[in-house]
Specification:
The structure is a homodimer.
Chain A: E1 4-8, H1 12-23, E2 27-31, H2 35-44, E3 48-49, E4 59-62, H3 69-79, E5 84-87, H4 93-102, E6 111-114, E7 135-139, H5 146-158, E8 162-165, H6 168-191, H7 206-212, H8 219-228, H9 230-250, H10 254-269, E9 282-290, H11 293-306, E10 312-318, E11 323-331, H12 332-344, E12 348-353
Parallel strand pairs in A: 1-2, 1-4, 2-3, 4-5, 7-8
Antiparallel strand pairs in A: 6-7, 9-11, 9-12, 10-11
Helix pairs in contact in A: 3-4, 6-9
């Protein structure tokens, strides 16, 4: 028989989870304090609407805003004495402390945090692919039964997520570093626009739009996330404030400034891979080119048709053989495809490591 | 006869400009200190390679890194006594001051700044559409002849750009605000990753990737841009540092924190429209729904097939007529299309302003 999951909260995350679990063969029941949300999510195919009296779930997922998570977890711990309970809150240690106060016997609660979402809210923006290839952090405590932890880990994998396990306190430091601080840097950049005369906004390009995209997220939700993780966030922000003071001091010192920019570039490149994949890694495709002008034009036509982001290239000539060599740096995963495409055009091509 | 344009510098911007101007019917000649770059750009269709001795351009565009722009402008002012000269440097007042020292008679130089580029460099990443719908700032000075300014404005429009005219000093303040400070905020966020243990990077999601994307840009280029605009950038960064200190103080004050987050959200939304378009502007599409469950499911299928980002919705019931009304908020430009799509499915739908 299919495992039965009760999802409390049919917003973006709860509804998406309902869609994904239904697809994976779970029997999903939906509840939301706004009954129209549960109705809409059910209409989308995310499960059936709870009638409360007959619910008997194997697993309960609390997918509400963080401020009501502890009381709902405490409530369902009492109401469903055999169910494993988890939640999707973005900060784990404060939720665990609050549950500890409300329901001291909570060994069936296993905290978790799917690292997925968008700047949108509500069931209409739900997607059954929301968790695919995303990280889902599970934060077990020593008192949890291993089989209960396994239930939550399997649920996460069944919706396509990659499970990472770490203690709640470590999780909270990590999200301060890679999620909450970046969010506030986006907020600081976007809020600084209040100082910018409207005509100057005409000069805004894609860069500032990318930096400020997540600042468009719901302030009420982020108020809860940030205040519940205030200590870890403050620690990181004080480091950023030191960096900012240093940066302001280096604006007239080109060498020191460039070193700092290089540190930023290295940090950005460490994230360029897909979610959770290895850092950017470049390979070089070298192509032999007969020494006549139309050859290059033909080659670029072939490369262009393959649709690559070519990051860097170098052209060298061999004066004896009267041929040239064009070396093109591309991401490792694309290099083989580019080489194949080029060779299909009748060129000689090799793959090598970047110098 | 087609106007003849000499482009000095066949990097991303110069090569893209060559592609776009060639397409627009200009006769384009390319020169680069690395002759292979000019050769590659010509191979892509961006013009023909300069042989220097016979060049006789009507317009010269200096599209090199900023540090060599003033000397090249001074050189071509002397070499081509009838040509109008412009450049594509990101900071205008220091370039103008340097030209003033090198070539005191520079009324044929009209500064400009196409607000287009990418984190990539070199002619292989060029695109004839790079300037389409982007802002191209022209920064005329009182001594410029209006017909020379008009030549540069027409060139910008001929490659699809939207021309904005402002004095060089105002331009430099504006780019500090909407480009250089966001760049440094991205750098600060990315460089802070040096403090993050590698396992914690597994928790990085799309948000930090967006915020840090532009930090991946070339540090050597940005060193030049930032040091040449250091005063304006410092002024803005000191304001950001004050905001950051305030933010750190509000982490334990939920109401003040939420107000600050709301300021960031407002700033982000002011940029959400397309480049140079109006700020985000929402309309509501209201749909009448017969009071039976499958109706909602059918409606969401229809909406889903239309592929919309639905930002918000509300479901209301009319107990007398036994129908419901679903109101969906979408961007103004999409509202009419959504309404049409919904009505094609046989629904009753209206368009209205957001409450």
């Amino acid at each position: 028989m299919a495992e039965s999951v009760l999802i409390l909260g049919a917003g973006l995350v709860g509804s998406s989870l309902g869609l994904a679990l239904t697809r994976a063969g779970y029997d999903v029941v939906l509840w939301d304090i706004a009954s129209s949300h549960a109705l809409v999510a059910a209409g989308l195919g995310a499960g059936r609407v709870s009638d409360e009296s007959t619910d008997d779930p194997d697993v309960v997922v609390v997918a509400t805003p963080p401020d009501v998570i502890p009381e709902l977890v405490a409530e369902v711990l009492g109401k469903f004495p055999d169910a494993v309970i988890t939640d999707v809150g973005s900060v784990k240690a404060p939720i665990l402390r609050a549950i500890d106060r409300l329901a001291p016997e909570h060994r069936r609660y296993v905290g978790s945090h799917p690292m997925a979402g968008s700047q949108f809210t509500g069931p209409l923006t739900a997607s059954g692919d929301l968790f695919r290839d995303r990280t889902w952090v599970v934060t077990p405590e020593p008192e949890n039964a291993p089989e209960d932890v396994a239930v939550i880990e399997r649920l996460a994998r069944d919706v396509g997520a990659k499970v990472v396990t770490m203690p709640a306190s470590e999780h909270d430091v990590a999200v301060a570093q890679v999620s909450h601080v970046p969010h506030l840097m986006s907020i600081l950049t976007a809020s600084h626009l209040r100082e910018v005369p409207t005509p100057n906004l005409q000069l805004a390009g894609q860069g500032i739009r990318d930096v400020t995209r997540i600042a468009g997220s719901d302030p009420a939700l982020w108020r809860q996330i940030l205040t519940s993780n205030a200590d870890a966030v403050r620690h990181e922000l004080l480091e950023v404030a030191q960096d900012l003071a240093y940066l302001i001091d280096q604006l007239d010192r080109p060498d020191a400034l460039e070193r700092f920019l290089g540190m930023g570039q290295a940090g950005a490149l460490s994230l360029v891979g897909k979610h959770g994949q290895d850092p950017l890694d470049m390979l070089e495709v070298t192509v032999e080119i007969p020494d006549e002008p139309r050859a290059l034009a033909r080659l670029f036509t072939d490369i262009g048709e393959a649709g690559f982001n070519v990051e860097d290239f170098e052209l060298n000539h061999d004066p004896i053989r009267e041929v040239g060599y064009l070396s093109i740096s591309v991401e490792r995963e694309m290099a083989e495809k580019l080489k194949t495409k080029i060779m299909e055009g009748g060129w000689q091509a090799w793959l090598g490591s970047r110098k």
